[in-house]
Amino acid sequence: MGFGMVGSEVARRAKGLGMHVIAHDPYAPADRARAIGVELVSFDEALASADFISLHMPLTPATKKILNDETFANMKKGVRIVNVARGGVIDEEALVRALDAGIVAQAALDVFTVEPPSKDSKLIQHENVTATPHLVHTFTNTLRMIVQEGVAIEVAEAVVGALKGELSATAVNAPIVPAEVLSELKPYVVLAEKLGRLAVQLVAGGSGVKSVKVTYGSARAPDVLDTRLLHAMITEGLIEPISSVFINLVNADFTAKQRGLQIAEERILLDGSPESPVEFIQVQIANVKSKFASAISDSGEIRVEGRVKDGVPHLTMVGSFEVDVSLVLINNSTVRLEVSTTLSYQLDILYWPKSHLI
C-alpha cells in the first residue's frame, strides 16, 4: 500500500524473493509499476488478494485509520501486516481485535499512533505482534543533530548534482531509478541524448518533426529493462536544439506533447547474455527531409543508431550505412566526432558546419 520510492524498493526486493507483487497507490504511474513487474490494483482488490500487506503511505485525512474493522473484515484470514509508514494509518484497537479473531496472523510495527507507546499497550503485549522502536524517538539530541547534518549534506549534494545536469536517484517527480541502475545506465543516457540531438539536426530546415520511433535492442526482458530515463533523454536531445526550452526529466513528456511530438518505442529482444542493459539504440524520424541524402534509410526515414563501447557512446549507423564514430564530449555545446571506420564516399554525413555540431 503506497508505491512511492520506499514502496517500489520494497516491491523490487519482494520480486527478488519470488513473490507476486501487487500495489495500490492512486498516484503511482502504471508504467513505473510495469517496469519492475508490479500490478497496480484497486484498494479493495489489494485487501482481498494480499497474503502480506506492507504500508508505505503518508498520514493524511484520507489515510487516517485506513485499516479498521471494516477493512480487516475484507482481508484474507491469516494475512500478515507490516507498518513502517505512520502509526495513525492503522486503527490500533481494531488491529488487536483482528489479531484476536485470527484475521491478522501477525503484525510487524515500527510506528504507532502515540510514540513511544505505553508499556501496558494491548497491541505491544500481543503475542503475534513484533514491535520495534521508531528510530527517531530513540535518538539523543546529539545523535539527532548528527543525522540531521548528514541528511542536509545529502540534500545539498543532490541539488548541486541536479543543477549540473547529473542523474538523480532521489527526484520525486521524475522517473525513480535506483542508484545502481543509474550507474549502469549512465553511458546509455549520454548516448540517448546525443542520438536525439544528432537526428533532429539532420532534418532539413522547415521540416516539422512530429513522428519519432525509438528502438531498443536488448537481451533483457521488457519487464526488467526500464527505458523511461532513456526516453526522457532522447526527448531532450530532440527538442532542445530547435527550441529555447530547457528539457529535464520532469517536463520532457509534457513538452513533447505540447509540441505535438509523438515518440513511439519498440523493444527488440536479442539472444545472448543480458550483461549490458542495451545493445543498441536507434532513432528514426519519419515524414521529413534531410540536409544529407545519406542520412535517409532505405525505408525513407532519417535514421541514426548507436552503441556503447568500453563505456563510450558510439554512432554506429546513419541512414542505411554503418559507421563507427566516437561521440566525445568537449563542453556543453560541442562534441568531437572521432572517425574510426566509415564508407569513404559517404563522408558527407560526418562533416557538419561548426554551427551544427552537437
From TrEMBL:
| Pathway involvement of the protein, from the record | Amino-acid biosynthesis; L-serine biosynthesis; L-serine from 3-phospho-D-glycerate: step 1/3
Q: From the record, what ranges are coiled-coil?
A: none
Residue limits of the D-3-phosphoglycerate dehydrogenase ASB domain? Answer: 184-298
Gene Ontology MF, one? NAD binding
Q: Which domain of life is it from?
A: Eukaryota
Q: Does the keyword Disulfide bond apply?
A: no
Looking at its record, which EC class is this enzyme? oxidoreductase
Please give the GO cellular component terms listed in this UniProt entry.
chloroplast stroma
Q: Which reaction does it catalyse?
A: (2R)-3-phosphoglycerate + NAD(+) = 3-phosphooxypyruvate + NADH + H(+)
Q: Name the SUPFAM superfamilies for this protein.
A: NAD(P)-binding Rossmann-fold domains, Serine metabolism enzymes domain
Listed A to Z, the keywords are: Oxidoreductase
Which positions fall inside the D-isomer specific 2-hydroxyacid dehydrogenase NAD-binding domain? Answer: 1-135
- The EC number of this protein is 1.1.1.95
The entry's protein name is phosphoglycerate dehydrogenase
Record the organism.
Nicotiana attenuata (Coyote tobacco)
The encoding gene: PGDH1_1
